[in-house]
Amino acid sequence: MGGVGEPGRGHAQPGAPLPTFRWEQIRQHNLPGDKWLVIERRVYDISRWAQRHPGGSRLIGHHGAEDATDAFRAFHQDLNFVRKFLQPLLIGELAPEEPSHDGPQDAQLVEDFRALRQAAEDMELFEAKPAFFALLLGHILAMEVLAWLVIYLFGPGWVPSALAALVLATSQAQSWCLQHDLGHTSVFRKSQWNHVAQQFVMGQLKGFSAHWWNFRHFQHHAKPNIFHKDPDVTVAPVFLLGESSIEYGKKKRRYLPYNHQHLYFFLTLLPLSPLAPPCSRPTAAHPGELRSGESGLHAGVHAVDGLLSPPPQDLLWAASFYSRFLLCYSPFYGLPGALLLFVAVRVLESHWFVWITQMNHIPKEIGHEKHRDWASSQLAATCNVEPSLFIDWFSGHLNFQIEHHLFPTMPRHNYRKVAPLVQALCAKHGLSYEVKPFLTALVDIVGSLKKSGDVWLEAYLHQ
Fold it and tell me: Membrane-spanning residues where (predicted)?
């Protein structure tokens, strides 16, 4: 075993003893352009390679100076393949006396969670059923055809048009669920097949960029409900969530009447729905909310990186969607009418998406980085909704949000099977495993917005 390493030391040489590092040394390397992380007790310098990381530099950078072992295992299917890319970045390992985790984390919980994951692998719960996903794609395509047939057979009247819009919105929502599965590489064994299929579903069936979706969504999974790391909750100054309510109140910030945000939430959904993909709205950091050491320009560029630079194939796939849509419906409605139908479909789908996704996260803890272990961080930010055949289908099985966040590459049809194991883990360690009725979950979104707004008002008036 080599001696204790020094910060800035070069990459380890093949066959040479690995230098060892203490956590106090590793913590110094969590700056833009200088990031280390720990995986399976080995220390990697990702400073330069992070820009080439397939999930984006922000995603891997969110784990800077942390033990990223469980995140590494959660996001990747073929670990041995990915380790080949890590090998050139290896600079050392943790000193023998150092714990595997930096900070006050429950080592027994981490060990038990990894044993649970191994049990799920032994039960083959990470193996997808091709027939299940083929049926999903089939019923999506059938709805696309049905919507066109309704207009073809009954004409572009108000009733047929409303029915077609509803069918198309359902198809779009289910396409979103399917591309979500593909984005998490939970359908095919080979990652490349998942990526190609996701581009087809996201591009041809929805008209959006798979690259943009992945850029934002993987950050959400890595650090759910963490400000400036999860784009889904970094929504100030339009909405204040969790700890941001107190911060804005104490600093006397009043860009909007936040004590009424639970009301104008409904007003913002309608005009914003058709203007951007429901899963991919860019979020620029507020100047007062940047991470230390990060300029406003740097943060803003990263926040919209997926918007500014989608790969050409994503643009071609999206163009094919809009061409198909207009070719199918312009003969009945003309170009203005076809565009109006498109907007109606997008509004319906966006409302579906917003309510389904936020019911699992907005009512939970939202704040700054707590440096928890993987299981604790995911459980603190997620809750489940009572399952049924309809709710499972309606939500794309995201009513099992806890299981999905703990095991993002697990095929959704296996969430029910792994759920009892997760419940047992939570019971053993006194962790909250929250399950609520569907309607309660929807109402809790509004209640959480009102609670955050009231907290802001109290802090604003009494500071």
Answer: 321-345
Distance CA 243, CA 227 (A): 9
Q: What is the per-residue pLDDT across 422-445, written as a single tens digit (0 to 9) for each?
A: 999 999 999 999 999 999 999 999
Q: What are 175's two structure tokens?
A: 């396409």
Dmax (CA) of the chain? 79
pTM across the whole model: 0.88
Partners of 305 in the beta sheet?
none
What value, to the nearest 5°, has the Cα angle with vertex 281 and ends 276 and 284? 135
CB 368 within 8 A of CB 245: no
CA-to-CA distance for 335 and 277, rounded, in angstroms?
Answer: 21
The DSSP secondary-structure symbol of 324 reads H
Residue whose C-alpha is closest to residue 151's, from 280, 333, 273, 327: 333
- Dist. CA 164–CA 166, nearest whole Å: 5
Angle at 215 between CA 210 and CA 219, to 5 degrees: 135
Q: What helix, strand, coil percent values describe the chain, rounded to 5? A: 60, 5, 35
